[in-house]
């Protein structure tokens, strides 16, 4: 595809592939626009219940295309972030469907930030994360300064962000940066299997769970307890909740419809 982003939907799972392998899927403006549009259209599509985001070739994503930055008419960095990167991060966090980053290779700069913004990360043994920003005199962006400490804690986040060393798959697992590590040739299958499990869940309960987990960072326990009661009131009024109870009673798997 000319814009470097491919989207395939099969059995309630959308797979978004960053597809510019010759540049390690480094992000150009058309790719960022296409990624934002793909996420927006999936968010509004009730038939899609889980998303896998991955890269083609040997990389997940090398972050901003640095060649593009050297063009005389390149937008300023803050405009680029506000108009193109931040909406991608917000779209991933605000969409109801869970997003799995299937990290097939290097994730650098904003490519790492995008992986951090996903709900779950499955890394191939070939994956590595590079907070490459400092190497080119920039600050971690696209959510990295907020997401990273929440994933790995303050001390490790400072080390990763300030030193910028590449983190391999095993260390990423040890640090809690990824949920699991699988052999490279099993990544697509394992990610798909996890996405299918998520897609079989009750969509509203999944969306509300995602929302509640995100919201928890900015509130105290009392507010969280109130918030959970409110969300449970909403989830408890759905047909899917009734279906879950019936399936338990009848000793069969539930068939959730999103109603
Ligand atoms: C690339 C890139 C790349 C273009 C590899 N661009 N070609 C947001 C707001 C606005 C602007 C500023 O930035 C941001 C956020 C950011 O993302 S800043 C961080 C941008 N990314 C980087 O600084 C990473 C630059 N790349 C690297 O450090 C390395 O390429 C990594 C560590 C990703 C991979 O290293 P290797 O495995 O050794 O591969 P390589 O360096 O040989 O790259 C392979 C090819 O991909 C090569 O092209 P060539 O024609 O020589 O084969 C690279 O030039 C190209 N490439 N990253 N970001």
Characterization of the model:
The chain is of the alpha/beta class and 259 residues long. It has two domains: 5-199, 2-enoyl-CoA Hydratase, Chain A, domain 1 (Alpha-Beta Complex), CATH 3.90.226; 203-250, Lyase 2-enoyl-coa Hydratase, Chain  A, domain 2 (Orthogonal Bundle), CATH 1.10.12.10. The chain has eleven helices and ten strands. It has helices at 29-43, 66-69, 77-94, 110-117, 144-152, 154-163, 169-175, 187-199, 203-215, 221-236, 239-249; strands spanning 5-10, 13-18, 50-55, 59-61, 99-103, 106-108, 120-124, 128-130, 167-168, 180-182. Strands 1-2-3-5-7-10 form a six-stranded mixed beta sheet, with helices on both faces. A four-stranded mixed beta sheet has the order 4-6-8-9. A hairpin with a 2-residue loop joins β1 (5-10) and β2. α1 (29-43) runs parallel beside α3 (77-94), α3 packs parallel to α4 and α9 packs antiparallel against α10 (221-236). It is globular, with a radius of gyration of 19 Å. The protein starts with a strand and ends in a 10-residue tail after the last helix. The relative contact order is 0.11. The mean pLDDT is 97. It binds ligand LHQ.
The fraction of residues in strands falls at: 15-25%
- Profile the largest sheet: 6 strands, mixed
Low-pLDDT stretches are none
Question: Which cofactors or ions or other ligands sit in this model?
Answer: ligand LHQ
| Number of DSSP strand runs | 10
Query: How many helices?
Result: 11
CATH superfamily of the largest domain: 2-enoyl-CoA Hydratase, Chain A, domain 1
CATH topology of the largest domain: 2-enoyl-CoA Hydratase, Chain A, domain 1
**What structural category arises from helix and sheet content?**
alpha/beta
Share in helix: 40-55%
CATH hierarchy: architecture of the largest domain: Alpha-Beta Complex
Compute the CA-based radius of gyration.
19 Å
What is the CATH class name of the largest domain? Alpha Beta
- What number of structural domains do the residues give? 2
């Amino acid at each position: 595809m000319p814009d470097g982003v491919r989207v395939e939907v099969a059995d309630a799972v959308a797979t978004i592939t960053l597809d510019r392998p010759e540049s390690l899927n480094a992000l150009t403006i058309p790719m960022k626009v296409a990624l934002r549009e793909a996420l927006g259209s999936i968010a509004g599509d009730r038939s899609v219940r889980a998303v896998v985001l991955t890269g083609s070739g040997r990389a997940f994503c090398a972050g901003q295309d640095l060649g593009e930055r050297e063009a005389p008419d390149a937008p300023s960095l803050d405009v680029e972030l506000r108009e193109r990167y931040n909406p991608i991060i917000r779209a991933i966090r605000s969409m109801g469907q869970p997003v799995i980053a299937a990290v097939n290779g290097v994730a650098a700069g904003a490519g790492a930030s995008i992986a951090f913004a996903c709900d779950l990360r499955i890394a191939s043994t070939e994956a590595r994360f590079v907070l490459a920003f400092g190497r080119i005199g920039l600050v971690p962006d696209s959510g990295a300064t907020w997401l990273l400490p929440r994933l790995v804690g303050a001390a490790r986040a400072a080390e990763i962000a300030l030193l910028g060393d590449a983190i391999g798959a095993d260390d990423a697992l040890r640090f809690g940066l990824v949920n699991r590590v699988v052999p490279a040739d099993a990544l697509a299958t394992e990610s798909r299997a996890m996405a299918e499990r998520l897609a079989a869940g009750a969509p509203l309960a999944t969306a509300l769970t995602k929302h509640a987990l995100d919201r928890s960072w900015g509130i105290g326990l009392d507010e969280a307890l109130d918030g959970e009661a409110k969300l449970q009131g909403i989830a408890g009024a759905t047909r899917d909740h009734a279906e879950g109870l019936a399936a338990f009673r009848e000793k069969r798997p539930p068939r959730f419809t999103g109603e």
